[in-house]
């Protein structure tokens, strides 16, 4: 990319990307902590995830403000414009991920009150690690403007869906086996669903990266297994 | 990489005046030295707390580039690290001039957990607006420590769980026998049978735990005796035959010309290895299938560790020295097989492949852990090759005895 003659313009664009990266780091930590809280039944950790969500909201507002300001004052065109718009959209998706992580943490506080569901939490842990891996590699792709890595994340969404489907079945068996577990299992089901949606946001970010780098936006349908066929 | 070679290193070059005299030579030596350090190291600069894109790393050694998956040794700090804890530690070192610590966890297939230390560097540290501050960030891998801790916690949880299940069933039946079933001889007989089975299960578990702890105590004492592996396998197969016949299993035992295969080892423990491997193979075989045992001798460690073609293979224990020749026992079953991702955890205590409940099979979950420790004590190796739906092959190999050993043993 050619350097801008006005040095501070380039700095502003770089700062936007850096702020997105920092927000991504916060978001990763939120998701990781939320999953850890469910798995380890850690009340304190869950509460701290809930409390920290404000930071992400604040970061999103901040990035949005800065982007609008940059567009208004510098009137960027072509890839500069795409970089600015992408930053705003990435921040948007990250904020949604943060909300989902917060929701997981809130549900954890309820789940902790019933007996542990050991084999289930193991499945949740695996799914959480998988989703977190996707989020990390898409953010790596964003900070490095690496189209190939972004596309790798984009094309591997069905793995998360498979995990979700098998967890769904596992939960059903549990609930049928022992009605006392229904409350915890229902919350677990939402935890799994939230993780799955965090995975979808990672896919969205991959699409945004592609838009930022190539300027193409329309996408053909992604490989997808039907989550409702159980 | 740094603009001027650090002063305080000068005395070292004075020690070797002939080879290192020019500053450029010594600075390239230090650059190579930093690059070769095993722990990841970053040097970070920053001038203003509010300027995010002003925070850059100006040095990343090879280990850091690998850890953070970056290809350059200079760039935006946020393009290399996003972790909030690490960033906070760096800020503290840069702008407050204080040491700070944090934990950094990598994501992906192998999660690693590292302790991060950030420390101000050079005269400008903590100066804030006065100039460019430098900070040194080091990472130290603590994955192993955490893994050991986790294993210990898991072990306690599992051991108590495995003991609690039969115990709960025992006390339940005792209650019933005192209550409703007091005057019902038929029910009493049936319950006593179940109680006996549960008590046996607990006894088996405790026996396995005891033998595991004994084997661990002796793990670094090399066994002295000489054992004929062919004879041992023959005996174990013979003993297992009645059980196999009950379920219509065919035990196919193929000894190499029925000759002696002498290995260095303790007889009881070798018997236990063969027994556990054969029991596992039979347990997971559907009725009417074949379990196959092969024995070969005089192989190198590479040939010994090789498994059947095609299936994913993993070494659970591998011996250190390679000049030995080994006797190899392969136990192959036609069972459901094991998925690739479960292979590495097989020899963990109480580990069961998902969806498999402890009650279903009669095992204690310690069999392979015992095999692993015995094989390790015998300086041998253990590999597993398996794929879902294609059966499993477990290979145990032991160092062959040399002529001198027999004399020593007798």
Task: Please tell me about this protein's structure.
The complex is a heterodimer of chains A (230) and B (410). With 230 residues, chain A is mostly helical. Chain A has one domain (7-214): Up-down Bundle (Methane Monooxygenase Hydroxylase, Chain G, domain 1), CATH 1.20.58.220. Chain A contains seven helices and no strands. Chain A has helices at residues 7-40, 43-74, 78-111, 118-144, 147-155, 158-177, 182-214. Chain A starts with 6 loop residues before the first helix and ends in a 16-residue tail after the last helix. Chain B has 410 residues and is α+β, with helices and mostly antiparallel strands. Chain B folds into three domains: 37-141, Beta-Lactamase; 144-217, Signal transduction histidine kinase, dimerisation/phosphotransfer (DHp) domain (Helix Hairpins), CATH 1.10.287; 220-409, Histidine kinase-like ATPase, C-terminal domain (Heat Shock Protein 90). Helix content of chain B is 41%, strand content 21%. In chain B, the strands form three sheets. A six-stranded antiparallel sheet of chain B has the order 3-2-1-6-5-4. In chain B, β13 (381-386) and β14 form a beta hairpin. Chain A binds chain B through residues 11, 14-15, 17-19, 21-22, 24-26, 28-29, 32, 119, 122-123, 129, 132-133, 135-137, 139-140, 143-144, and chain B through 51-53, 55, 69-70, 76, 78-85, 87, 105, 107-109, 111, 354.
């Amino acid at each position: 990319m050619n350097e801008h003659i006005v040095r501070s313009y380039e700095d502003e664009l770089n700062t936007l990307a850096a702020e997105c990266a920092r927000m991504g780091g916060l978001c990763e930590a939120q998701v990781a902590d939320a999953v850890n809280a469910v798995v380890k039944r850690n009340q304190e950790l869950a509460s701290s995830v809930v409390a920290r969500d404000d930071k992400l909201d604040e970061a999103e507002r901040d990035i949005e403000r800065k982007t609008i300001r940059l567009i208004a004052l510098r009137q960027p065109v072509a890839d500069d414009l795409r970089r600015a718009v992408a930053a705003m959209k990435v921040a948007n998706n990250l904020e949604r991920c943060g909300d989902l992580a917060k929701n997981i943490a809130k549900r954890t506080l309820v789940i902790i009150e019933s007996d542990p569901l050991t084999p289930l939490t193991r499945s949740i842990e695996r799914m959480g690690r998988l989703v977190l891996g996707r989020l990390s590699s898409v953010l790596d792709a964003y900070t490095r403007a690496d189209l190939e890595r972004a596309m790798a994340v984009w094309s591997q969404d069905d793995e998360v869906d498979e995990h979700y489907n098998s967890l769904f079945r596992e939960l059903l068996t549990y609930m049928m086996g022992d009605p006392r577990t229904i409350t915890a299992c229902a919350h677990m089901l939402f935890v799994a669903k939230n993780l799955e949606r965090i995975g979808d946001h990672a896919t969205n970010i991959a699409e945004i990266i592609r838009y930022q780098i190539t300027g193409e936006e329309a996408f053909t349908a992604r490989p997808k297994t039907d989550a409702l066929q159980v | 990489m740094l603009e001027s070679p650090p002063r305080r290193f000068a005395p070292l070059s004075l020690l070797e005046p002939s080879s290192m005299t020019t500053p450029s030579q010594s600075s390239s030596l230090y650059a190579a030295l930093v690059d070769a350090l095993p722990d990841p190291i970053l040097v970070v600069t920053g001038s203003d707390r509010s300027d995010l894109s002003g925070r850059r790393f100006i040095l990343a050694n090879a280990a850091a580039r690998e850890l953070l998956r970056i290809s350059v040794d200079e760039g935006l700090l946020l393009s290399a690290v996003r972790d909030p804890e690490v960033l906070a530690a760096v800020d503290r070192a840069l702008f407050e001039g204080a040491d700070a610590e944090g934990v950094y966890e990598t994501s992906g297939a192998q999660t690693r957990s590292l302790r991060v230390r950030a420390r101000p560097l050079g005269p400008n540290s903590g100066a804030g607006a006065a100039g460019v501050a430098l900070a040194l960030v080091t990472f130290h891998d603590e994955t192993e420590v955490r893994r050991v801790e986790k294993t210990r916690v898991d072990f306690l949880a599992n051991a108590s769980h495995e003991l609690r299940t039969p115990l709960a069933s025992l006390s339940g039946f005792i209650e019933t026998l005192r209550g409703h079933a007091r005057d019902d001889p038929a029910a009493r007989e049936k319950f006593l049978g179940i109680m006996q089975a549960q008590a046996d299960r607990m006894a088996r578990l405790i026996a396995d735990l005891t033998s595991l702890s004994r084997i661990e105590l002796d793990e670094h004492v090399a066994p002295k005796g000489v054992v004929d592996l062919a004879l041992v396998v023959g005996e174990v197969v013979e003993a297992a035959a009645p059980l196999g016949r009950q379920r219509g299993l065919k035990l196919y035992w193929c000894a190499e010309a029925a000759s002696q295969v002498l290995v260095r080892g303790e007889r009881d423990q070798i018997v236990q290895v063969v027994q556990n491997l054969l029991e596992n193979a039979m347990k997971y075989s559907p009725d009417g299938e074949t379990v196959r045992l092969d024995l070969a001798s005089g192989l190198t460690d590479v040939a010994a560790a090789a498994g059947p073609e095609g299936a994913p293979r993993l070494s659970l224990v591998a011996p250190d020295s390679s000049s030995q020749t080994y006797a190899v026992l392969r136990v192959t079953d036609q069972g459901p097989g094991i998925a690739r991702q479960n292979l590495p955890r097989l020899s963990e205590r109480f580990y069961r492949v998902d969806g498999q409940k402890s009650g279903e099979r009669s095992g204690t979950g310690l069999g392979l852990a015992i095999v692993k420790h015995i094989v390790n004590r015998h300086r041998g190796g253990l590999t597993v090759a398996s794929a879902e739906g294609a059966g499993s092959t477990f290979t145990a190999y032991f160092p062959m005895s040399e002529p001198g050993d027999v004399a020593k043993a007798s």
